[in-house]
Amino acid sequence: MTPKVFTKLLALFVLLLVFQTVVMEFVFGRLVESSAGESFHLMAHEALWAGIIALLLALPLAAWAARRVTRRIERVVSFASRVADGDLNARLTLESGDELAAMESALNQTAERLGQNFAEIESRRQELAAMLDSMQEAVVAITAEGSVRWSNSVMRRIAGTQLHAGRPLVHFVRDPDVLACVRAALEHHEVRFGRASNLAPGRMFEINAAPLPSGGALVVLHDVTRIEAAEKSRRDFIANVSHELRTPLTSIQGYVETLVEDPRPNRETTREFLGIILKNATRMNRLTEDLLTLASVESPDYKLTLQPMRASALVQDAIESLGGIVVDSEVELESTGAPDALVLADSDAMNQVFGNLIENSLKYAKAGKRIRVGARLVESEGVSEIEFTVQDFGPGIASEHLNRIFERFYRVDKARSRDSGGTGLGLAIVKHIVQAHGGRVWAESELGSGAQFHFTLPLAPAPVGEKMASAMA
């Protein structure tokens, strides 16, 4: 209750008391005039003084009662203002059990329920924000005017830390495909899809822009870079396999047709044609075997039988078992030595690795007349491992090819590789086998100085006997 209202009520109360006094004076005055006795005059005089005394006593009591009610109403107004400002912890103190106390109790309960509801809403909002932040997709909410309402951490990383709520999306995202989808969703109130290739360098995104019931739009960007790369790799793989198979098949078909159509084939010509057919059939068979091997080593189900083996024994076994390959090539296969340290390796897989590397070097090593195989103990970032090396002294490999020669069907010299019977899969098989062992593989070369192919294998835990002997020493 404001002071102005309090003053008006108090003035009205005073006017009522004065009116009562005047009425009493008039009534008693008429009685006095009509009466002949002195007693009536005395009664009127006493009644007048009684009214005045009652008025004087009633005024402070009325002021006290009105002021008390006013203070309670002022507390209610202050409480309502605090709640309106967002202070849902505000509460009224209950002083008595009258009607105002009942109202104050109801207001306290309302504030408590509001606080609980807002706390639940805030908790759900935080949970939703955490879920959106944990998503792999970039998410951004746009207002009907095209400004950023909210974005998750993935979107902020893509667009940059300058992405702020309340500012237009076009200030942060310049990809025309994204902006076109957002604009269409806002204008037509329909879900729009698209692809964005200019949002981040080297990355591809699928766009999903959906209108929101309250206005604006929600944009979700799904990173499909790996899917696109896998799809491209699949298409390239199919194209390469088709190309590799088509060449020998065309050759076989041509020579067979020539033999079939010749009514009197020459014996020497027939023998020559059959030799070419056999060569192309062998090439196709080898390509098929390499494809099966590559599919096996790339499979998640590929299992190795790892066992401790000495590095020196692996090098020696490779030279002895593959020495027959180089007998007719006038190339010398020699060892540069290897430590006796134990490595964890699969024997058959290692024969495949050394066989592919030595055979690959043999294609280019004829000019140097030798291939060296060896191993050494190295430490990389505090981890000890064995580094194996297969080195040739051929023409070498240009630096721009070194990072790609372990890709499927990649050839430095395509014509020469096909003439030598290569499938383009040998080094890719080596890479997957070495990585399955927990190792690394790479190549080093300079033009005119040959090439070196390196791979590493982790050391095997020392046997219990060797550990005890080392501890006693």
Can you describe this structure in just a few lines?
Helices cover 55% and strands 16% of the residues.
Helix-strand makeup class: alpha+beta
Succession of helices and strands: HHHEEHHEEEHHEHEEHEEHHEEH
Sheet-strand content, in percent, reads 15-25%
Radius of gyration: 48 Å
Portion in helices: 40-55%
Low-confidence stretches: 467-473
Summarize the structure in words.
This protein has 473 residues and is of the alpha+beta class. It has four domains: 3-84; 135-223, Beta-Lactamase (2-Layer Sandwich), CATH 3.30.450; 228-298, Helix Hairpins; 307-464, Heat Shock Protein 90, CATH 3.30.565.10. The protein is 55% helix and 16% strand. The protein is built from twelve helices and twelve strands. It has helices spanning 3-34, 38-84, 99-134, 153-159, 176-188, 225-261, 267-298, 311-322, 347-364, 414-419, 426-436, 464-472, and strands at residues 138-142, 148-151, 192-196, 205-211, 217-223, 307-310, 332-335, 342-345, 370-380, 383-392, 441-445, 451-458. The chain has a five-stranded antiparallel β-sheet. Strands 7-9-10-12-11 form a five-stranded mixed β-sheet. α1 (3-34) packs antiparallel against α2 (38-84), α7 (267-298) packs parallel to α11 and α8 (311-322) packs across α9 (347-364).
